[in-house]
Amino acid sequence: MEDPKKNETPAPTEAMKQKYGKVYKVGVTVPVDDENEQEISYYFKRPSVPVYDRFVKTMSKIGISKASKTFILDSVVDEDRERLIADMEEYPGLSITIGNKLGELLGLGNDVNLKKL
User: Which of 67, 68, 66, 89 is nearest to 26 (CA)?
Assistant: First the structure.
């Protein structure tokens, strides 16, 4: 079984906050086997509008998986980048899951209501 401390993300430092501004921690629970799960987390800076625009533009050209991967790699802090790349190799669906969560920071979400008046 994998060491649970391997993917543990320490709290963001003041230097990280100064470097990136507001920092967001995104945690994902992934199955290790049928009985065990592991939580992995990464820190991200807020995605910029141009980064999101590129994501939307390229999604139809190269597919959602590759577009999501590029989107989150543009937003992950440098300190977590290599670990995220390695984890995406093992869990390819991470890019879509995390990309959806980061999109919520820009107003993309499922909780929209429409009511005819």
Answer: 68
**Burial readout 88-107 (b: 16 or more C-beta within 10 A, e: otherwise):** beeeeebbbbbbebbbebee
3 in helix, strand or coil? coil
Q: Which mean pLDDT values do the consecutive 10-residue runs of the chain (117 residues) have?
A: 51 84 91 88 90 86 89 94 95 91 80 75
Residue 112: which residues within 8 A CB-CB, separation 6 or more?
none
DSSP 38: E
Per this entry, what is the length of the chain?
117
Say if pTM beats, i.e. exceeds, 0.70.
Answer: yes
How far apart are the C-alpha atoms of 52 and 89, rounded to whole Å? Answer: 23
